[in-house]
Specification:
Elements lengths: L23 H15 L1 H9 L3 H15 L5 H12 L9 E3 L26 E5 L4 E7 L7 E8 L9 E7 L5 E5 L7 E7 L3 E4 L3 E4 L15 E5 L4 E6 L7 H10 L1 H5 L3 E5 L15 H4 L4 E2 L3 E5 L3 H9 L8 H15 L13 E2 L9 E6 L6 H9 L5 E5 L8 E9 L4 E12 L14 E2 L8 H10 L1
Helix pairs in contact: 1-3, 3-4
């Protein structure tokens, strides 16, 4: 599985090439048709969970809005609202290669007669101190309030350019569409108090001015280090299958050093996932029994188009003749299940564990740890040797694998998940994430590693 994380915004004022006219309803209906045929989360959340009527009502509202939209920017914003119906972090959009939308034009306050004040109207300062916004009244296709740039250290932003369109305002269910530099929109929840304005799980604005702080840029890469006489460190920033051989080679090279110390910290912060095969070589050092079961099983929605995509790409990661044989057998299995989810079979795997492996394993993760990396955490947590640290993971784990659907008139493509995950303990972690045993979120992230090291060695 792979995951790409986008947190961006939208507004409804047409401009330059990004404001070109389009048939928004036609594009929405094209996307809806593809999702209803091919997306695993649609089949799971709408069909299997008997929410067809809810979905039809939501889609009708979206399409009614689409009929009023004539420019690309607003239509792409509406796509983000439509996708928000599905709790599926593997459903995302991106611009076509080479397409670079321009930032928004500056907009001004436009208060209608008798318009009430907004609970969080006025100036707010972003969490890292690099910019501030001004929440003002300005009518858009999505609502009557927006947030525009007030001040920014970035040359990419000018005062008055729009950052947020608020789509719903209520004490318990406010929402917005938020965008950053590349202008990919995503709908987010909004929570506010007198002093804070929270956009989704990751973005916070404050009433009081915040001075610029260094943003968290944790990038472990693939890295092994001896931290002390008793503790080793292993950082893995990706489980992409292209990294599998590198991970395997590093663990082979450092095996003696790993076995020589009682503590091992495995850092998967900002690891967006990849493939289960990429972390198999780590398990012998982590697990405390040679019998293990994967924490969840993937079940593919085998539509005609999904089958064709799997068939066309089946040899993409095959590195041996046996890999090719296995992939060919898998496509035969998929073809036998056309028009339904593939059945699962619970299996217990046997792993040759390292007898002299570290007795204490700490796994460190953050809000950007996602997808297969979350699967690694769940499987590792079955070991009594493991203790987890950090903050809730991304929560992009209930669906996986995706196929791209192009919307050429909008210069975007949308990823449709093709696989749902069936958890052996019936967990629901999508958009929620895995909670750590020790919550480090109150501390600065740059101090987390040292905190974990002290915990292990005290």
């Amino acid at each position: 599985m792979r995951i790409q994380i986008f947190l961006f915004c939208i507004y409804s004022f047409s401009f330059s090439a990004f404001g070109q006219k389009c048939d928004c309803l036609k594009n929405m209906q094209l996307l809806q048709g593809e999702i209803e045929k091919n997306q695993a989360s649609y089949q799971h959340q709408v069909v299997e969970q008997n929410r067809v009527n809810d979905y039809i009502t939501f889609k009708t509202n979206v399409n009614n809005r689409a009929q009023k939209i004539t420019n690309k920017r607003d239509c792409i914003g509406l796509v983000s609202i439509y996708l928000s119906f599905f709790r599926d972090e593997h459903a995302f959009m991106a611009y076509e290669n080479g397409y670079k939308p321009r930032p928004a034009k500056q907009i001004r306050t436009k208060r209608s007669n008798n318009q009430n004040t907004f609970p969080f109207e006025g100036i707010w300062y972003f969490q890292d101190g690099t910019f501030s916004i001004n929440v003002i009244p300005a009518k858009t296709i999505f609502g009557e309030w927006v947030a525009v740039i007030h001040e920014s250290e970035s040359v990419s932003w000018k005062k008055g350019q729009l950052k947020i369109a608020f789509t719903q305002i209520a004490n318990d269910s406010s929402s917005c569409v938020y965008w950053r530099t590349n202008l990919i929109p995503k709908k987010n929840s909004v929570k506010f108090t007198d002093s804070t304005l929270e956009i989704g799980r990751h973005l916070t604005f404050y009433r009081q001015k915040i001075y610029a702080q260094a943003a968290s840029d944790i990038n472990t890469g693939l890295h092994f280090e001896v931290l002390s006489e008793t503790t080793n460190y292993l950082g893995i920033s990706s489980f992409d299958l292209s990294n599998k051989d590198k991970i395997d080679s590093l663990l082979t090279e450092k095996r003696t050093e790993i076995l020589s110390k009682k503590n091992l910290i495995i850092d998967v912060r900002n690891n967006g996932g990849g493939g289960f095969e990429a972390f198999q070589a780590i398990l012998p050092f982590v697990l405390d029994t040679n019998l293990t079961e994967t924490p969840y099983y993937g079940s593919v929605w085998v539509s005609e188009e999904n089958y064709a995509y799997y068939d066309q790409t089946k040899y993409e990661f095959a590195t041996s003749k046996q890999d090719s044989v296995d992939e060919l057998q898998y496509t035969v299995f998929l073809k036998q299940n056309l028009g339904r989810f593939t059945p699962i079979e619970h299996t217990i795997d046997t792993i040759l564990i390292e007898q002299q492996a570290p007795s204490n394993i700490a796994i460190l993760f953050n809000r950007n740890t996602a997808s297969t990396a979350e699967g690694f955490i769940l499987q590792a947590k079955s070991s009594k040797k493991v203790k987890t640290f950090g903050e809730n993971t991304k929560g992009a784990i209930s669906y996986g694998d995706w196929v791209p659907v192009k919307l050429p008139e909008l210069n975007i493509w949308v990823a449709l998940s093709t696989k749902k995950m069936i958890f052996k303990n019936n967990e629901d972690l999508e958009n929620i994430g895995i909670s750590p045993d020790v919550d480090l979120s109150p501390a600065s992230e740059k101090d987390w590693l040292n905190i974990v090291l002290r915990q292990l060695e005290k």
